[in-house]
Fold this sequence. Notes:
Blueprint: E1 19-21, E2 25-26, E3 30-35, H1 41-54, E4 70-74, H2 79-92, E5 102-104, H3 115-128, E6 132-136, H4 149-166, E7 169-175, H5 194-198, E8 201-208, E9 211-218, E10 227-232, E11 239-242, H6 257-268, H7 274-281, H8 285-298, E12 301-304, E13 307-310, H9 319-323
Parallel strand pairs: 3-7, 3-8, 4-5, 4-6, 6-7
Antiparallel strand pairs: 1-2, 8-9, 9-10, 10-11, 12-13
Helix pairs in contact: 1-2
Amino acid sequence: MLRVTRACRLSEQPEEARWLVSGLWAEQAVGIVGGEPKCCKSFLALDLAVSVASGTPALGRFPIGKPGRVILYAAEDALTVVRHRLEGIARSRQLDFASLDVGVITEPVVRLDLERDRLALRETIERWRPRLLVLDPFVRLHRIDENAVAEVAPLLAYLRELQRSFGAAVLLVHHARKGASHVRAGQALRGSSELHAWGDSNLYLARKATALTLTIEHRAAASPAPLALELAGASDAVTLRIVEPPSKPSEPRSIPIEERVTEALKAAGRPLSIRQLRAACQVRTASLTGTLAALTKQGAIERTSAGYCIRTQPELPSMTASLT
């Protein structure tokens, strides 16, 4: 018999505990950082690794729910390159690189389609208990047919099992098909559609000319609008950052006609005709005459034979005059 619990008795999770990286990667989520070659997928994965390990916001914007250890396997890059990139990201955030809790798997080859390597990775996760496991890229982790669901599904199921057994989020870097920028980001991934369906949180990078765009998808949360990114910093401190859209110029304040009329009369210091007021206030005759009538009725201005002027307040009798 299978265990069954009433829905109302299932445990609740507060909002702040739902995210490993707030708005970017769900707590204990499996998912993909995908995109065509040279789209900074590895840089983004390393940015998330440094953020989770240090507790500093990812991309300078997305807070970390609870920092913790990260285990990383970079199958395509030399270990010296991995160190250089991690150190540069840490330096850009003014972090002590030596204290950064990121462990790097240094094995030359890890093949997750082989039982011995699956067992070795499981033992590693059990030993180090990371909050986040980063595997970069998927194509270097196996020799299966990526287009065959029957071969891809068991490997992804194994990674899901790691996540559920040890409470670790799993980030898998994967390539998109070349020339697939016209289709939905997840559908552009190379291989079986099982890869897109597998992810709880997926991040997709796309480059058009020099513009780099990040698209965010979640299984159980709304997805924010795409973000523009760029690589920035000095050669020894390169990092990804969000490109903020240019701010729109503020609209000039529309000055009410009444205010324009009274200011024009005050500045002139003498009565002005309707023609003179229309030129000074840049308004239509119909609008001006209606405003003059309203201001006259309110007692703010008065009409004289020479034109309109600010109404002068009658002088109050002095105390001396009232006593005589």
